[in-house]
């Protein structure tokens, strides 16, 4: 009772206080301030990519809103009469003409278009890099699995947002991109032709597609993205941010800066920095010069026809797939009682299989890894990538697979810029898309293990000082300096799970699943480097030759 | 709080054979705080303050630069002006934003407290909450009676399953059914081959060896669905030495004196296959690099396409102009299920 | 039909064209471009009426030219193209390729070829203008072929750049790229970038179809259409990109590379600064 009495009797003294009190007593602001005002966020540069994604999305909403005021998504024919002379008098769609008007006749329109497009490229890149950070540090583990799924969904949504926007200017480049989508869609068995006709409102290109993509681009996709961002951030607040292991940091605390004032200032300031960088890029670098491409027409095409970077890997996969191998034809004609149907696997396989592999692994990974480790604990401390060698290697293999397909999308530019044959580039990339991930897996796992051994070395024997000393009996040694307790803790505070062999149940039987699990567990953890223990460190000081020599040497030097 | 059976944070009990080593280093706690220059030296503090203010001032200059670019550089249809205006608007915005952003961050880094603070994590789901929630849910279920009245439950399920179907069906009119549309083009016996985009007819004599013509059917420019028709009907016309052509039986008269016409729409996913190499007689698709050999009826010799480009049979009319002998004998463009 | 002053304008304008492409930010560029654009839109009508007279064989060769050219040919070209230019296993016959072919191949430095390869590369030009003219005269004397175009038909100011743009996109962009930045062909061959290529060489390439480029004879693309294409190419070359640096006009690939390397690089630099402790 006393508290409610106090609230009623509180009389603000200043004008600001009166306004604040008026709002607070109606929205419960005090409780919000109490909850968030001093909430702690850990600081690390790799934790900023999610913010970059969020901020670029805000910039996309701002610049996009400007563009919608001038853009007209109509595919009606018109004759261009605007300021750009090399297209004067050319027949084109209203959508393309209005995009040209934004570029040439509306002050700041070109700048806004460039900000919007550059932001879109950076948005998807930031989402991707943020996800890579989460993956390689193991931040997707319990309790954050669902937030990982929301993140994966956001990635797909950002691709959808990008693609629907890319096509809107109705220029030659994006039109040929749409034509490729149409071709891929038609290759889908049974329903493909119908899907194409429903999407385009009849035959390609029709007069409906731009308007439909526009609604998806400015309404549906951003709305769902906003919803997902809301959920994503809610879960971040609920879980509190994860942190790297280190002195003072445990699985039960969060160490960092309070929201007010430091974190809010840094995060808030960072929005302006991201905006500033994008504005500078848009000021000085052309993006998507639609005036070069001309209006969409089904007959012309430009050399170097590629999609924006985030769709590149699918385009690359389409390029890499051979239509025929020897006399084996990937397009099957299947005889049915009602006639023959075509199944063009040369299109279906590259369009669907890599995407299915990557996205399935991505969505399922938290549960795959939990099954392998049989780990049901919560993890708020991150892994350094080297301390999870197999996960890191699988991630690098996935990235390599992706990047080779991505590179394949620019095979023609690789050929012209490195003076090699286009065909050879394709042949090499066909080999690499299979071999590359395997090699990348092996190499990156070895590198992780080597880095772990290096950490052990430093923990046990100290840091190399670069000082060479000659001992009384003539031997030269390098002086090693033991690391301090904080560094030692950082180097040794990680988990190194061991391979788990299948254990027989009560009847002495090992189930098939257990056997599989045993094999997978061995694959994951067979090669492991254990963290240095205090016992080992003591032992190394006791009988390790180099260190003894080094220690003696230091004594000798200091006694001099 | 550290109840291992619920996997709460802080559990360091080994699970299976994984888990932490029995002996590990003690957490030494946060390293001692090291004061910054601005914490120790009042002059450094003052300097940082001035730097922050200067950065905010730069932002003001940036905003002014934007207005100069917007109001004092009138666009006059030259690219030069537009580029200058774009540069000024962009740099103005960049300075305006970076001035604020860098200023605030510099302020936070140098002048705001930099002591790291520790906050405890709490259980995401305390057990007492779970028990309360379980009880509430059970009460709700009981009061609703949904368990006791299966008739209601089952009819509701059925209704809820059916109710969304109209929402799917209502999209039926997004587009017409394909019908025969993909199997027919504007080409027909006697339709003249004309230049793209002008629509002027082509004489056989105009087509010299080594040349390539981009061709549309006569009347396309006046057609009702021009782009849809063009998307199927575009053709590439080339002339080779007749001896270099290897027509299969029955197609010997599809060419006219070494002049051949092939669909320009790739059989892979539909890009225009327009890159003709006049010495090798290869056609290359710039999108996915499918390569077709014109000497051998445009069969695929490289890349992801699996089918040759369809050939348009051509002949010459009384006036010496090239005309089609018929429509394409197979559907043009990418494969689709009903292609047959 | 041509106004008497037009060739004077041609000569007067050709110089600023080159200078402008180097210093696009010159204040006079805007004026020059506007003038040229006005001439382009107006000039098309004048050009259209002279359509059939413009098949200009303006360069006339003397018997002496042919003679000198024959000697140059025997010394520099005959080892591959054969005595009498009738061809050999190494190189094609040059009978009937015309003066334009010689002017293009030798004038752009492609011939004499340095080494065997997928296609002849552009190199520093090996002969002076007089020698090239003499060799052209010799080859032209072997059989009828495309002639070196006249200056009038090459004047970009007389062409319609938007009509040229349409023709360029249909006939040329698939190999040379919509912004004429070049592109790949099969097995190491490529279509070169057209930036910096002279009006004359663009025209000659169209009429002769060098190497794997198809021939675009006057029956296919009329001389006036070719002039429009040249006008288009020169317009986009001079004006540059309105949005700033064009990143090679290579489309989304260079844009993607830029945002990943430069964009993300700067962002990361800022994140590291932002999260580091102040000294």
Main attributes?
heterotrimer; A: 560 residues; Cytochrome Bc1 Complex, Chain C; two-stranded antiparallel ribbon; two-stranded antiparallel sheet; disordered N terminus; C: 279 residues; mainly alpha; Cytochrome Bc1 Complex, Chain D, domain 2; QcrA_N (chain B); disulfide bond (chain B); monooxygenase activity (chain B); cell membrane (chain B); electron transport (chain B)
Summary, kept brief:
The complex is a heterotrimer of chains A (560), B (340) and C (279). Chain A is mostly helical.
Your description of this structure?
The complex is a heterotrimer of chains A (560), B (340) and C (279). Chain A has 21 helices and ten strands. With 560 residues, chain A is mainly α. Chain A is globular. Chain A starts with a helix and ends with a helix. By secondary structure, chain B is of the alpha+beta class. Among the domains of chain B are: 74 residues; 156 residues, Rieske Iron-sulfur Protein (3-layer Sandwich). Chain B is built from seven helices and twelve strands. In chain B, helix 2 packs antiparallel against helix 3. Chain B is extended and about 95 Å long. Chain C is mainly α and 279 residues long. Chain C folds into three domains: 144 residues, no CATH class; 80 residues, Orthogonal Bundle (Cytochrome Bc1 Complex, Chain D, domain 2), CATH 1.10.760; 30 residues. Chain C is built from twelve helices and two strands; from the N terminus they run H-H-H-H-H-H-H-H-H-E-E-H-H-H. Chain C has a two-stranded antiparallel ribbon. In chain C, a hairpin with a 5-residue loop joins strand 1 and strand 2. Chain C is elongated, with a radius of gyration of 22 Å. The relative contact order of chain C is 0.13. The chains are: A mainly alpha (560), B alpha+beta (340), C mainly alpha (279). At the A-C interface, helix 6, helix 11, helix 12, helix 16 and helix 17 of A face helix 2, helix 8, helix 9, strand 1 and strand 2 of C. Strand 4 of chain A pairs antiparallel with strand 1 of chain B. Chain B: InterPro entries: QcrA_N, Rieske_2Fe-2S, Rieske_2Fe-2S_sf, Rieske_Fe-S_prot, Rieske_Fe-S_prot_C. Chain B: One of its GO terms (cellular component) is plasma membrane. Chain B: Its cofactor is [2Fe-2S] cluster. Chain B: Keywords: 2Fe-2S, Cell membrane, Disulfide bond, Electron transport, Iron, Iron-sulfur, Membrane, Metal-binding, Oxidoreductase, Respiratory chain, Transmembrane, Transmembrane helix, Transport. Chain B: It is found in: Cell membrane.
